[in-house]
Amino acid sequence: MQYQARPDHNADLLATMHELAQQRPRYGYRRIYRLLRRRGQKVNKKRVQRLWQRAKLQVGRLRRKRRRPTRPPPQQATYPQHVWTYDFVKDRCLDGTPLRILTVMDEFSREGLAIEVRRSFPARQVLLVLANLFARHGSPAYLRSDNGPEFVALAMRGWLHQQQVQTLYIDPGCPWQNGKEERFNGTVRDECLNSHAFASVAEAQVLCAGYLREYNEERPHSSLGYQTPLEFKRDWYARHSHDSGL
């Protein structure tokens, strides 16, 4: 008769975790933990993991076929703006309209530079996207891609030569030589394209632009010590400016 139930001290935290898991359905507990810390919650990672498992919020694993790399890709990126990489992803609208999506990223900082959506993407349109990115960020030293016709077109190669950007083409049938871009594309598909049913090309453009901001400014990246790409790049420049005495 005198028994009183103990208050559940985890209720508020668990409710917040459920909310974040609904907003970011492809995030695991480590990224959710980082988001909680950014919100000012002083919480232990093991506690988050325990509650995550108890609530069965684990993210289902995607089955991927893996190939054994034959050799590492040439020219590893060692600083921001050193090596950019670009590639295409395909999708469709609800009415069957095909979507071709050009993604561009900085290999060192993992910053997503573009997720551009069109019905088709001839070489001249790829060139216009790159020209806008070069004007906004400056040009990289190298640009990595596969041997797709849009990337090896004479107009594209001639323009890149004028910009003093060297091209790095991966070997045919060796996508692991462009591993960082492959991973970026997989993340875009998993967290953005597979999460939306696009009613039109315009809607796809808006949602992909919103995801690009989220990826760069909010999404903790495991290979960057769970910083966002922009945080990592800012800290890198701050450290090297200090080291050089600037």
Count of DSSP H/I helices: 9
What is the H-and-E element order?
Answer: HHHEEEHEHHEHHH
Strand order of the largest sheet: 3-2-1-4-5
Assembly state (oligomeric): single chain
**Major sheet, described briefly?**
5 strands, mixed
Distance between the termini: 72 Å
Q: How would you sum up the global shape? A: globular
Beta content: 5-15%
Structural class from helices and strands?
alpha/beta
Helical amount among residues, as a percent range? 40-55%
Gyration radius (Cα, Å) is: 21 Å
**Count of strand segments:** 5
Poorly predicted residue ranges: none
> Would you tell me the overall average pLDDT?
86
Please tell me about this protein's structure.
The chain has 246 residues and is an alpha/beta fold. Helices cover 43% and strands 14% of the residues. The protein has nine helices and five strands, in the order αααβββαβααβααα. The chain has a five-stranded mixed β-sheet, with helices on both faces. β2 and β3 form a beta hairpin. The N and C termini lie far apart (72 Å). 26% of the residues are buried.
How are the elements arranged and paired?
Layout: H1 11-23, H2 29-38, H3 45-54, E1 83-92, E2 98-106, E3 112-118, H4 123-137, E4 142-145, H5 149-152, H6 154-162, E5 166-169, H7 179-191, H8 201-217, H9 229-243
Parallel strand pairs: 1-4, 4-5
Antiparallel strand pairs: 1-2, 2-3
Highlighted features:
globular, 5-stranded mixed sheet, alpha/beta, 14% strand
Short description:
With 246 residues, the protein is an alpha/beta fold. The chain is 43% helix and 14% strand. Strand 2 (98-106) and strand 3 (112-118) form a beta hairpin.
